[in-house]
Amino acid sequence: MVIKSQNKLNIPITELEQSAFCQDGTNFRTKTLEEEFKSGVRWQKIPTRYLKLSPQEIKTSIQKVKKSLGEKVIILGHHYQREDVIEFSDIQGDSFLLSKLASETKDAEIIIFCGVHFMAETAEILSSPNQKVILPNMAAGCSMADMASSNDVVRSWKQINEMLSSKSSKKPVIPVTYMNSAASIKSLCGENEGIVCTSSNANQAFEWAYKRGERILFIPDQHLGRNTAVKFGIKKSEMVIWDPYKSNGGLSKDELENSKIILWKGHCSVHTRFSVDQIKKAKEEYPDVNILVHPECTNEVVSKADYVGSTEYIKNMVHNAPSGSSWAIGTEINLVKRLAHTYKDKNVFCLDEMICPCSTMYRVHPAYLLWVLEGLVAGYVINQIKVEKEVQKFSKLSLQRMLDLPNN
Question: Per-residue b/e over 357-373, b at no fewer than 16 CB within 10 Å?
Fold first, then answer.
């Protein structure tokens, strides 16, 4: 039996919710769901019996239920998940690694994706037809993905193509979407000879796109797009920002024609918190510190960092670093704290002293995981992710182009 639930709740994703969970690091722990609801969050409704369960009660119950389900269920956990959730994941990774694993996981009947909505959609697109994908909390969206709504992107794509004409045998523009986007955006890319990328393979995706087009429309994170473009050798004068709320994106025909990359006006609320001043402070306190940041940070921060890469890259850099080395990291706090705990022989800390988790990742409270697991034991599939066939068809095209990139 399947309990139907709307795939995406129309809940405003604001940085106000993120600030509700910002802490100084002295008491960074999961509370009962009832306590967390008091912060004013608007998460998916859940049966009342889960509200008062203590973290330990939830943990004991998850362990018992997970064991009873055996290999029927596999739990994928993104690095940004809170510790009380990630400990139950069978596989951990960033969005790229987990998307690959979703395409390769054929044995499990149920994939529970402890991440956010676009990740679960991707798992549904790449998994086998006989598999079902579950997202524990349907309100776990992505503020960046929400900055590029399907209607806005479709309208903008049409406007851009009307304003541009090809000056060679190449297409005037190739759409490239970051993994952090809705399936409908991936579908638009698939249907229009475009591609999906992650922070792990953005450079390869750019190379692929420029072989086919004169310029790129990069959706939805302007900072990853800009940082990749700089690395690719594109001048900042050849980069323009498309604002979907302005007429023609706020750009003239000449500005578009002179561009090599059109950056959608979107950003990550977590990674734009990091600043050059934080880097200066870290270096003053630890002169030999290594600055390691995610490419969703602003270009000012990225240009001052020693190392830049995806969450998987960050994890591997710390893993391979010599004992006694210092690392100031600019990415989501749950991963940073996990690295600090794992590699106690190294000085690992977050660039931002005020600890702010990704508010949408944080919506996957362990009580939600217990809820969907207990549903499976009772014969119910709660929060199944479904993608329309036409959207799935073209999304799979753009995702497969990404998976086929060299060095993946």
Answer: bbbbbbbbbbbbbbbbb
